[in-house]
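seq as requested:
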Amino acid sequence: MQGTNFRKNIYLAIAMLIVFSPNIYYSIISQEIVSPSRKIAFIVFSIGLHLIPVVLFARRIKWFLSLFIPFAVLAPLDMFFIYLYKYPPTNSALRDVLETNTSEAAEFIKGFRVPAALTLVAVVVFAAVFIYCLKRMNRAVSTKGAAALSLVFIAVTLTTFFTQQHGDENKYVAKAEVFETRIGKSYPIGVITHLTRFYLERRQLVKHRMAVENFRYNPKRPQDMSEREIFILIIGEASRAGNYSINGYSRTTTPNLSATSNLISFPNVCAPATVTRMSLPVMLTGTSPADYSSAYEKPGVITFFKKAGFETHWISNQIEMGIYDKSVKSVFTEEADDVTVLNSAKGDVRDNNIKYDEQIIPPLKKFIAESKSNKLFFVLHTIGNHYRYDYRYPNEFDVFKPSMKGRDDIRINDAFVRDLKINSYDNSVLYVDRFISDVIKYIALLDVPAAIVFQADHGEDIFDDGGSLFGHGNKVVTKYVAHIPLIVWVSDAYMNSHPDKTAALSSNKDAKLGNGFLFHSLLDMADISYEDSDLTKSVFSGKLKLNARGIINPSFKVVDCDKLLD
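struct tokens:
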């Protein structure tokens, strides 16, 4: 009988091992957990955390573990994410999965064919083994044994709360912060907590719609603004300010912009967040990164333009969102009078049907030519420098070689071909330069008061400084993700009608820009004022003042941008 119970307990241990496997894998490859003692502490915490309910359900252990079947099946997917990013999924990552489309998913998975295939095999194996073990194990386990084991794990965990140090700061972190962080990383409870946050964010989106519907502000403009005016915001994607030759980069990546008159590049700008869906709310509402959640509780800049009498358009070359997406890219987009999405979820973005950003210009021209309004405001949302970089520009812009063009064998995490990726990235910047300059040339020909502001949502890591970070949205925030380009162009007619604002642009060129400046700058650019206008945050104002700058990482931690960029 004892031998039989032992074997059945082995089945229990194997089942629990399957559920806890992401925690073990994370502790092995994590970039954040370095020392062996901290790796052990994390595993101990994860197991102890999940043994607490085992004590309560010790007499119904098979029934209790049956609730874990979905998590046993999903464990390989969690490990696949950890393999890619070196940390467990956050609620932002879960949202990305739910809101992606087939085209983006196909492009992404093709870069990881073997790991993705192994993950699918592991899903089947984990499910089969877990269910087999569930059938063979005892219906109950020793309550005293489970309680004693759990208490040991909890005691070890509590001890680590008083010795855990935070990064390089040599300061003890609060027990609550450590506890919350470890829960968020522990599988499967971490998945449940992040899904809960995902649900709460859905509620925030409802608040945003209500804020737009119940617009309480009273934007005003000077009464003598009767002639035609055109204002444009171009949102860049994954753009590194350091790779723009107009900002001092050694390669000539912005020849057109560098030769354009009435144009100023601001070389010291901090991104509000490391991913688009977190950057846009801050950019479009003027919210401080530290107060990120409140961004959904107020209308965006488009609504202010509409209430001030402007016809508003959003033209996007970003991939259209999936069926679950009613978040940043759609909620703030929907404020516009007209929304034009040039890329749909149909097809594969790897094929020849990929739409480059130049496809934005024809509808822009069409709307301007056909509009009966004298006041126009456009937001042009580009695909910019998003990976894969070589898919973001036509062949004639493949100047820096060897590049990724024609190399479909290159995977997203292949650091050994960094030179090819940098060359392709610089080529994509060369194309962005052409696109922006083409928009400027067209607007300049109209000879009306006009201004164009280009700002990226975030930068990009490309295995810099010998590191292993690539892309954006990494938990570790670097200067390459934080440092973004800001370029402002004004027409001759605008310079003549707004000499003070034009002079302010030049005087503010080297300012350290960050929190909330874009929102207030856009309104000030168009002479829109309201009761909470803040000219101390406008690059068009002589009253601009410097303030603390922060950038949000996927875990909603605000990182000091001044420390990154200085």
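The chain has two domains: 2-200, 222-565.
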